[in-house]
Amino acid sequence: MQRSQALNRGAAKLAAVNAEALPYTLLIILIELAIGSLWVTLASDLRGGVTRGFVLTMTAAAAIVAGLGYWLSVSLDIGSDVDGYLIDPSSFAPMQNLLLVVVGTSGFYAVMVFMGWDPVGRIVAIGGSVVGVVCVAFLAGLLSPPAWGYAGVLFALLAGTLSMGAVTTSMTWGHWYLTEGSLPGKPMRELSWILIFAILLQVALLVINAAVPERITPTPANPVDGGLLANPLFWFRIGVGLVFAFVLAVLALRTAQIRSMQSATGLLYICMGAVFTGEVLARGVQFLTAHPI
To answer: Which residues have C-beta within 8 Å of that of residue 12, sequence separation ≥ 6?
Structure first.
């Protein structure tokens, strides 16, 4: 009973603390989802086996999500901190401009696929994917001042971007099997392996980033007592966003190997929710503790 009350108090306190950080958390999630979807869709297209309709759907969705992220970024009033979490405002404008390039390249890729000029679209998408990496790099620069180091934030964001893109792309691709059973099983297996690798990478980075002390402790208006390990959302991030997501990804791979694609798609639906929840929790905890988990 006491443990349940403690968890409820911790969750309520986090909700109050992160009110100012919520728009930034949403911006990070949108950037990761858009760029990650572009990366994984392009990789699947280059590997072959996926349909043009799928590539068109995913690239158009990536452009829309990136556009929403850019729209949100325009509405933000950037200062020197977010509820006591120090940021580097000089990185914001370059990140914002690069995000707009991602919008354009993803949209152009979708148009080229629709017109049947896939090779041109792929070339532009390769450039857009590189721009996406640089965009994430500037995002890491924005968030890195209080963390133990720029590298810790950068790799955590890159792993999150890959994980978000892999789970969304694989789940969406699963729907193509539901309408056309003759599609090859190789793309789903490859996408599941990418997702498993991304989650394992996140686990390794979490261990490092949780262990190394932050440089500057954030000073939120309503801090959670006891630091990182005392925060119940840290353990929810591990249990839901990593352990549960990993189990679901492995099960999706196993069901894809026996060509039970409907089951694999259902598992990936749940896995997508777990990965998204984990990323939201990770960024919320980061704004409280300066640990990029």
So the answer is: none
Q: Are strands 85-86 and 81-82 parallel, antiparallel or unpaired?
A: antiparallel
Are the C-beta atoms of 77 and 228 separated by less than 8 Å? Answer: no
Residue type at 125 in one-letter notation? A
Query: Domain extents for the chain?
Result: 2-289
Per-residue pLDDT of the chain (293 residues; tens, 9 = 90+): 444 454 454 444 444 446 788 999 999 999 999 999 999 999 999 998 899 999 999 999 999 999 999 999 999 988 889 988 999 999 999 999 999 999 999 999 999 999 999 999 999 999 999 999 999 999 999 999 999 999 999 999 999 999 999 999 999 999 998 887 688 889 999 999 999 999 999 999 999 999 999 999 888 776 666 678 888 889 999 999 999 999 999 999 999 999 899 999 999 999 999 999 999 999 989 998 999 98
Kindly indicate whether the domain formed by 2-289 is annotated with CATH number 1.20.1630. yes
Using CA atoms, how far apart are residues 95 and 117, in angstroms rounded to an integer? 29
Q: How far, in whole angstroms, is CA 266 from its chain's centroid?
A: 20
Ranges of beta strands (E only) in the chain are: 81-82, 85-86
Q: Is the pTM of this model over 0.90?
A: yes
